Amino acid sequence: MLAIARGIGSTRAGCLDCSFRDEATLDLFTEQAWPGMGAAMRAAMETLIEAGFPPEAVLLELYLSGELSYSLDKAAELGMSSRELHSHTSQ
User: Fold this and answer.
1) Residue 82 in contact with residue 74, Cβ under 8 Å?
2) Cα 41 from chain centroid?
3) How far apart are CA 15 and CA 6, in angstroms?
4) Cα separation of 52 and 89, whole Å?
């Protein structure tokens, strides 16, 4: 696999020494853990709505704005502890 990756240029971005079993297990964990992330999002939405925030504003802020996916993409790019993504107030 390393020879194939090198041949198609994938090693320029980097490679990990990982067994097929590890890769499959990690992939399955991610797929199965995703509903937990959805449950956390739903709990956050319910908490804010119960606190009196308009449901439309909560949905827009937490989901439809794309801010969460942007933040996750930037965390993958810059690192999980990157504070550059936060507002000055948040920092």
Assistant:
1) yes
2) 12
3) 9
4) 23
DSSP state of 62: I
Distance CA 62, CA 48 (A): 10
The strand ranges marked E within the chain are: none
Q: CA of 18: how far to CAs of 3, 9, 13, 27, 41, in Å?
A: 15, 18, 16, 12, 31
At 26-82, the pLDDT tens digits run: 888 888 887 888 888 899 999 999 999 999 999 998 888 888 888 888 888 887 766
Domains of the chain, by residue range, sit at 18-78
